[in-house]
Amino acid sequence: MDLKVKNALEAGLLAYAKEEGIDGKAFFSTLENIYDTEAPFMDKVSLLDEAFDTNQQFEELREVAFDLLMINFFSEDIQKLEEDYLDSEEWESIEDQTLDRGTELLNVFLYLRECADEEVNPSLDDFLKEFLLVEDDEFQDEHRIYEKVIANQILIESDYAEIAKTAKTLDIEDELADVFYPIMSFFTEPNPSSEKLTDFSASALNKSYDNAIYQLIINFNK
Q1: DSSP string spanning 17-64?
Q2: How far apart are CA 27 and CA 50, in angstroms?
Q3: Which DSSP letter does residue 127 get?
Q4: pLDDT, tens only, 107-148
C-alpha cells in the first residue's frame, strides 16, 4: 500500500470516527487489507463496496476511499502490470465502469503526487492553471466544475470562516459542494497547527466529513 495513501486514509477515517464517536481502527484495518490485496482493480472495488455496505456508519467516505484506491493503483499496482496497460482495452473498460465513481479529490491527490515528484510546494494557482489547465479552451469541463474555486481564489488570503461562508452558497448539485471547504482550506493552510485545526472544525459545515477530508489531504501532502 502506498505510504501516502495509507497515512491519508488512516488520518481521515480516524478523524471521522472521532467526530462520530465510533471506532475507526477496525475499519481502517479492513480497508488496508483490501488496498494490499493482490487482485484486479475491479475486484478491489467490489471488496471496497462490500466493506462499506457492512459498515454503513462510514458511508460518507465511500467515494473518497475509491479515490484513494485509484491513487494506490497508480502508485503500486500499476508497477506489476504491462508498461502500456493504461492504453489497453481492459483499462478503457475500467474507466467506463467507474465514470460515476469517486470525487474531485482524485484531482487533488494526483496534483499533490505530482508536486511531491517534482519537489515543489502546491498552490491553488498552480493547481488550476498548470494541472487542471482551466484557462485552456480544450479543458472547459474543468473550468465549469471549478468555476466557484476560480471565482473565489482570493479566499486563500482569508480564514476558515470566510471559506465556509462561501461554501454555504454552493448549490447542493455542484460537483464541489461537499469538498469546497476542505480543498480551499488546504490551499489556505496546508500545514495547520492544532489551533488552526480547531478553528477549521469550528467553521465546518459538516464537521465529521469536513474534518476527515481535511485530514486526508494534509496527510497525503506530508
Answers
A1: HHHHTS--HHHHHHHHHHHH--S-HHHHHHHHHHHHHT-GGGGGGHHH
A2: 12
A3: I
A4: 999 999 999 999 999 999 999 999 999 888 777 888 889 999
